[in-house]
Amino acid sequence: MKPILNDPSSGNGAPQSEAPVKDVSEATFVADVIEASGKTPVIVDFWAPWCEPCKQLTPLLEKFTAQAKGAVRLVKVNVDENPAISRQLRIQSVPAVCVFFQGQPVDGFTGALPESRLKDFFDRVLRRAGTGEGGGGESLSQALEQAKAALEENDPATATELYSNILDTQSDNADAVAGLVRCHVATGDHEQARGLLTSLEEQIASAPSIVAALAALELAEQGQQSVDDLPRLEKESAQNPGAHQVRFDLAVAQFASGQQEAALKSLLEIIRHDKEWNEQAARLLLLKFFKALGHAHPLTVAGRQSLSTLIFA
């Protein structure tokens, strides 16, 4: 089976065009969905030739995409021809629609919605991107990007200020809340981070960016005590490579201390030697690492490829 998350630098993964509606395959999914959603929401329509409701839904999706005048893009995935994508995104029936924004799935539904509800869905997608009614347009997207960049550059103070400014004008912006949670995690203020999360309404709390931020917080809390043990764990793991529990604890400490790539490699090494160890504890923690990093993070993309190789070898 070909992994859907192919190397974006490969020829097969290059964007084919900038058309607002196109068909995608396993080879082009990363370029046409994950990467393309960095600035513009990408709506993924999962369909099949034998599906009658799909024939009703797809024209409406195309209609509202055209009306959005480039503010969203629509891609279509034939589930019969691209089963790996469906499996990885857990698509169990068609039609199904999934929205990607900034590299992550942020919304979606299954079944054929009536036109009025579909319009509400598109309005919600446009508001999330800051291009619908009441949105801040390009300035909101830029502010989120600036805050994210500041956090990635180890400047949580600047990121906190930027995210707070966004929330002053759009208090229900899930990405800004998630970013602020990550700022508190970065400064070690886990109590403040958890306080933000516990005060959220259910609709915001279920947003993928919030779920990812919660995973990052839980991992930070889990590794808080083991960070001090990092030198000991590194030494013991080197002396006894077959001690999976030591290597597992090492991965927890590595991730909590910011050594994310090393943490992923530690877990992959356990899986390489014993896929079923401790009821697949290494694989489950690895999936949590992916969630915390985000679907579009380079380490997640590379890690999923490595995991697929090990599992299906």
Brief descriptors of the model:
disordered N terminus, 15 helices, five-stranded mixed β-sheet, 313 residues, alpha/beta, 58% helix
Give a short overview:
The chain has helices spanning 29-35, 52-67, 83-88, 115-128, 138-152, 156-169, 174-186, 190-198, 202-205, 208-223, 230-239, 244-256, 260-273, 277-293, 298-312; strands spanning 21-23, 42-47, 73-78, 96-101, 104-110. It is of the alpha/beta class and 313 residues long.
Write the layout of secondary structure elements.
Blueprint: E1 21-23, H1 29-35, E2 42-47, H2 52-67, E3 73-78, H3 83-88, E4 96-101, E5 104-110, H4 115-128, H5 138-152, H6 156-169, H7 174-186, H8 190-198, H9 202-205, H10 208-223, H11 230-239, H12 244-256, H13 260-273, H14 277-293, H15 298-312
Parallel strand pairs: 1-3, 2-3
Antiparallel strand pairs: 2-4, 4-5
Helix pairs in contact: 2-4, 5-6, 5-7, 6-7, 7-8, 7-10, 8-10, 10-12, 10-14, 11-12, 12-13, 13-14, 13-15, 14-15
